[in-house]
Design goal:
Oligomer: heterodimer
CATH architecture of the largest domain in chain B: Orthogonal Bundle
Strand content of chain B: under 5%
Helix content of chain A: 25-40%
Radius of gyration of chain B: 26 Å
Structural class of chain A: alpha/beta
CATH architecture of the largest domain in chain A: 3-Layer(aba) Sandwich
CATH superfamily of the largest domain in chain B: MetI-like
CATH topology of the largest domain in chain A: Rossmann fold
Structural class of chain B: mainly alpha
Distance between the termini of chain B: 31 Å
Shape of chain B: flat
Radius of gyration of chain A: 18 Å
Bound molecules: adenosine-5'-diphosphate, magnesium ion
CATH class of the largest domain in chain A: Alpha Beta
Number of domains of chain B: 2
Number of domains of chain A: 2
Largest sheet of chain B: none
């Protein structure tokens, strides 16, 4: 099934008939099977699917960490061959370096890419101020709470000013309340900065609340099974928190449809 | 909306207790109990040493054991004073100390460099894996005569000490490198980091405590290697003093050398513990800014 970018937006990311197999001594795992879809500029897309269906694999392909077995993955029409500066990745664990201060962690990207130190410093300070970590720049990660650590990880990702964000279950290590607050905040930031984003999650609520579109993946081998355009009135999106969105009929409708497609057998 | 507007979620902001607040009587009691406990432990340790010395002295004097074979603390002490006055003890101690520290530094450096190489070269790692395991298992003491013939009396001491100590460093550090958090490595790759940057920004700093642990394991082995090397070939050093003392049946001298060895191991261990504080200080390896 070919899945086009959301309404009247130019394609930013494209998977074109992508398959990926992992080879290990114990055998061959077909993780992704003929996956095709596009994501438009400034679009936020959630990908849901059960554990092991190939969600992380999909993001690794986009990040240029692995190459497809067949098919092409492209960003702005260019085939991906190595980690691109356009992409920022957020992992499930915040992976902050415990031997660096929050500010030094934030500066990791510019440091690795050899960017101008003074400019990066200024940018990092600005981001930490905005993300509510003004007083924690000189702290070490173990001195921060889970939510603060995740914000610091976001600041680190944003410090290279990526135009595309890949989020791999970034909230799953947080407790429920922090998780809702942080996901609202991060969705807000992504929207206000006009980033294109893919959010991988197995929380349907989170997927619907944060995204413009939800792609549902089948069990292994991963295929795109269906897509659901999430159609909240723009005003609702801007005003409401995700908890309030959850009260809307459109939310419930999308939730039910996705739940059915996920076809969970317990 | 800025993030700080969101306000404090439960468990969000880690606020330290307000400074200058009065500690509760229960807390003060607990603190005092802690101090008493610590003093008790040190007292028990000193008591154990004292008891050992007393039993040793009494057993030898009452001829429960043959003092010619066991010597006894007061004899060891007077022997030590004589040897110190001659400057003999100082000379031998110094020789052993220099040999041990040199071998320790060399084997630590060699082990870490080899571990880095194995990390950088996965194929070499696969090829060499069984050889490392066998190399570690071979009793290096068996090589003493060979080293003596190959390297001569002076260098063979270093050769044997390094051979004894290097494998434990290599294996421990190698395993530490292998077990470095894969997600941190992945993160650095997504940020465009090179292999060399992964090594210097993640693998090495993440394994500082592993390297210190390897150093702790190394120091004892370096000392063993040096003493065994001295048994075979030395004209000086505590190992030589032990062999010489036993040949002329001077158990006082032998015991004296062994006591000094104990003091040396203690001093080296304390030295590494100080180094540990410095190496694992979170502030040591940081962004150069
Ligand atoms: N490096 C790897 N080597 C071998 N198999 C892998 C590797 N990474 C993932 N897989 C397998 O590929 C499938 C998809 O994995 P992944 O993309 O991590 O799934 P998800 O993120 O959806 O849980 C799983 O069955 C997993 O076991
Ligand atoms: Mg995953």
């Amino acid at each position: 099934m070919a899945i086009a970018a959301g309404t009247e937006r130019a394609a930013r990311l494209a998977f074109n008939d992508v398959s990926l197999s992992y080879f290990t001594p114990s055998g061959e795992t077909l993780a992704l099977d003929s996956v095709s879809f596009q994501i438009g500029v400034g679009e936020i897309v959630s990908i849901v699917g059960q554990s092991g269906c190939g969600k992380s694999t999909l993001l690794s392909l986009l990040a240029g960490l692995i190459a497809p077995t067949s098919g092409t993955v492209s960003i702005d029409g260019q085939a991906v061959s190595e980690p691109s500066a356009a992409i920022g990745f957020m992992l499930q664990q915040d992976t902050l370096f415990e031997w660096r201060t929050i500010l030094e962690n934030t500066l990791l990207g510019p440091e690795l890419r050899g960017h101008d130190r003074a400019a990066a410093h200024e940018r990092a300070e600005g981001l930490l101020d905005r993300y509510g970590l003004r007083d924690f720049k000189a702290h070490f990660p173990h001195q921060l709470s889970g939510g603060m650590r995740q914000r610091a990880a976001l600041a680190r990702t944003m410090c290279l000013d990526p135009s595309i964000l890949l989020l791999d279950e970034p909230f799953s290590a947080l407790d429920f309340q922090t998780r809702i607050a942080i996901s609202d905040e991060i969705a807000q930031i992504i929207r206000s900065e006009g980033k294109t984003a893919i959010l991988v999650t197995h929380d349907i609520n989170e997927a619907v609340a944060m995204a413009d579109r939800v792609l549902v993946m089948s069990r292994r081998p991963g295929r795109i099974k269906s897509q659901h355009v999430i159609d909240f009135a723009v005003a609702d999106r801007e005003r409401a928190s995700s908890l309030e969105l959850r009260e809307l009929p459109a939310f419930n409708h999308a939730f039910q449809a996705i739940w059915k497609d996920l076809d969970v057998h317990v | 909306m800025s993030m700080s507007d969101v306000g404090k979620m439960p468990g969000e902001i880690a606020t330290p207790a307000p400074a200058g607040r009065q500690a509760s009587p229960a807390y003060l009691n607990w603190q005092r109990a802690q101090v008493r406990r610590r003093i008790g432990i040190v007292a028990a340790q000193l008591g154990l040493i004292a008891a050992f010395l007393v039993v040793w002295e009494v057993a030898a004097r009452m001829l429960w054991v043959n003092p010619l074979l066991t010597s006894y603390p007061s004899a060891v002490t007077s022997s030590m004073i004589t040897l110190l006055q001659d400057g003999v003890l100082f000379k031998h101690t110094w020789v052993t100390l220099v040999e041990t520290i040199t071998s320790f530094v060399a084997s630590t450096a060699l082990g870490v460099v080899l571990a880095v190489w194995l990390w950088l070269a996965p194929t070499a790692r696969r090829i060499l894996d069984p050889f490392l395991v066998v190399g570690n298992a071979v009793p290096k003491i068996a090589l003493v005569p060979i080293f003596y013939i190959w390297l001569g009396p002076a260098l063979s001491i270093y050769g044997i000490a390094i051979a004894v100590a290097v494998f434990i460093v290599l294996l421990m550090v190698h395993i530490g490198f292998e077990q470095t958090d894969k997600n941190k490595v992945k993160l650095v790759r997504t940020l465009g980091g090179t292999t060399w940057q992964i090594l210097t920004k993640v693998v090495l700093p993440a394994n500082r405590s592993v390297i210190v642990a390897a150093m702790k394991a190394n120091i004892g082995l370096s000392l063993v290697g040096v003493i065994v090397g001295e048994f075979q070939s030395a004209k000086a050093g505590l190992g030589y003093l032990i062999v010489y003392g036993s040949q002329i049946f001077q158990m006082d001298m032998v015991m004296c050398a062994i006591v000094i060895l104990g003091v040396i191991s203690l001093a080296l261990f304390v030295g590494i513990s100080l180094l540990e504080k410095w190496i694992t200080d979170v502030r040591l390896i940081r962004a150069e800014n």
